[in-house]
Amino acid sequence: MKMIGIGDNGAAGLLPQYIEWINECDVLVGGERHLAFFPHLTNEKKTIKGGISGLVADLQQETRNVVILVSGDPLFYGLGGVLAKKLQLEIYPYTSSLQLAFSKMQESWHDAYITSLHGRSIKGLAQKIDGRKKIAVLTDEKNSPQSIAKYLKYYNMTEYDAFIAENLEGENERCRFMTLDEMEQTNFSPLNVVILKQRETKVRSILGIADEEFHQRKPDKGLITKKEIRVLCIQELQLKEDSIVWDIGTCTGSVAIEAAKIARDGAVYAIEKNEGDLANCLLNQAKHRTDFTAILGKAPDHLEEFPDPNAIFIGGNGGNMEQLLETCMTRLQQGGRLVMNIATIENLAEAMEHLKNLGCTVSVLQAQIAKSKPILHLTRFEPLNPIFILTAQKGHDK
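Above: the chain's sequence. Below: its structure in token form.
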């Protein structure tokens, strides 16, 4: 069974050997667009539509000579990677859409960050690409160049210019350089690739954003996990690039934002019971180029809407600690960590008791931090409120 990559120029772009294999096969499999390149072929044709589980089952039973046509390089966001695990395939790639796009742009692409929005949500794109100098994006009709431009402008990522390549090697091929404003106002063919390139370098903050850089409740400022405590908590969470994180009682979103910048290939889910604080969280997301799910509610309500996490931060529990901790530890993945900020010894004792009863390994860090502050021509120290940072681990790290 052979899988052959094909471009928008159809049979004209294929090697003579590939054409011979296609002519000699008993069954030709492909999308409607691919099969349309061979209108005079009398072989049986099978169209790929919707899910592929049925197709895989049919092909596993097939004893005839089969050729499968797919776009570009089958192993680059294509069917090849999926079908090769299920079938005995010989794979013959064509030039990928990105190779073609970068050649039209006359840019190298070994240093590009590549991501696909084809059939996927744009959620989380901001932190994935923030600070990257060259980005290639595979699109679809929903995540179109116009939508991408609007998204980037919302997160103030205006240091990027775009190159859009449409219908590569097809009759209506068109390649253009554009600003984000121009891209937002232009219509494009559904078959396109977007390449983003920094016009100017932006410094990407990673950990320890200053407190004053967050929108906060006024005039009652201070409902924020302070930078120094935030850094300690993030360290205790031991996040990885693909971590799934919950932030319960997110308030300004400061911890969730720092977590999203680290877990940029994972996802962050935050919940906040105060509508005004949630509004500030959304403003802070846009300001700090992080795009994560933040909802209004009081945990443990709504937590069933989130996927199972690798890490949980609890900034506030609203007085329902036992139920909340039980829910969190049930959902936390094996080896995952839960970190809580606790201000009183009574709440600390209660949390430790519940977590130990739930079979967790528990440790506590007492943080007492003072920061220098000028007074006339002298310097004094001003203390932050002391806090307990409780860390609970479920099972053991793998």
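Residues 275-287 form the longest helix (13 residues).
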